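[Q] Does anyone have a clean structure-token version of this?
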Amino acid sequence: MPGQMYSDDSHNKYSPLTGLIYVFNLIVGTGALTLPGAFSRAGWALGSIFILVLAFISFVTVTFIVESMSIANAVLVRKRREKESEDSSSESRLLQSSTSRRERDPLIPPYFNDRSEEIRTRATAVGVFEINQRVELGRMASMFFGRLGLYLFYLCIAIYLYGDLAIYISAVAKSLRDVSCVYVPKPDNATGNRTSIISDDTLCWSEADGMTRFAAYRLFTIVFLITLGPFCFFNVSKTKYLQLFTSAMRWTAFLIMIAVASNRIVAGENTGHPVVARISALPNLFGVCVYSFMCHHSIPSLITPISSKKRIHSLFTADYLLITVFYLLLALTGIFAFDQIQDLYTLNFEPDHSTTGNPSIFTLIVQYFLSLFPVFTLSTNFPIIAITLKNNLKSLFEIVDEEDEEVSDESDSEDESGQLGYPRLFPPATRRTQPPPTTICCKLLSKGGFPLLAIIPPFLVAIFVQDVQFLVSITGSYAGAGIQYIIPVFLVHHARKRISTTINPYASPFRHMGWLWFVLTWAIVSISFVTIHRFLDSGTTIPS
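[A] Here you go.
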């Protein structure tokens, strides 16, 4: 029915194993490309421990999201039954009332043992809390938060998506720049050797054109925005086939990087000598790890279609164990194989234009594939994230256009940004008692202003800051920590207040109130530590 606040995904189910793969593919993304660089600076021992700790806390908050979803489903079921009861006839209402009383009363005489009553209550609870309806984070925030909490939620989501887009633009432009710039600096006059670090002031192509590498980077950011920016003005869906393509690209690229780095170590060509621990590098690693383990904003779209959710917590346990081992393998092989890890790990595998040898065709294909891997995958995701941000900005500013007024059941389940991995983070537009203003100014703002507001700020950030690891760290340390730690804590805390029973089959294993305080304290201390470190560090200037 129009204005329905949920969607039933019962018609589009998949197995728990498929769900495990989808969660893995969602988490292992852009953040993993910056993880080896931050890991190498923190040290192999301290970095390994820190990844394990952050993986565990991220898993804890995932269980909070799952529990909040189950409670939200129970609330929606109750509201739907109340609505059906109000619309029925007086005789039907009387019958419903009688049935309701019988459901509240024991179905067996009170002199029967308490164990039978417990079994009956548990069986009823399983059905009430079943996750059959996809309730996104925005909808849960509107259900469990007040007006201020809802605004803060949208603000946090918007900031995170802004960081996402800036990271995408910077990563793509930097990859294109490093692959296309073929100019090789002349050897040093004193030593006769070429430096391994090429500055941004180095020429890109030849001395004739005079374009530096940083100027070329800015050129590619402009080309990227002109090419993909217009898609933000339209409805773009991430289809199943596009998702399969990007997933295959991701798996192939990461496995090749691990294999090449491992081969360098086995063959004795490794040049990496990482430190054991460096505490001063932990703030940067914190932000990168939070970003690398992010999946919380997409959990509703991922787990609702799973056919059997009885072992949903076991599924996430297996996923997080696999991802943690995968991240450690990627980072450890990288820091021991290479002396210097680029902020974008794929750039360690780019073709070396300074060598005089003739690499094989296969080697060149692998090198160009890995170097351009961010270009292929991030370019396909950019329009989806931009549209999601545009729609969240609309919700944040409470501007409803004519399309928002005609929300239907189909639009809820097949939103332009609601495909798997990039869910609809905002609830359908709130109905107004009076029609919205239809002035030309409002229409222009809705149709053109919000798309520009979504893509111009991250473009301005990316055109001045090309350090992808820095962007990932900032995004993860603040907005990412809000989504991964703070929002789940408050969601599950307020959701638990809406129910009177403790019998929830999807309740988090970390149900004690102490876990909520632990995660919240960890988030506050970590964000404070990162902020203080960035202000006190002598190198607080924004990297170029």
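[Q] Thanks! Anything notable?
[A] The chain is about 65% helix and 0% strand.
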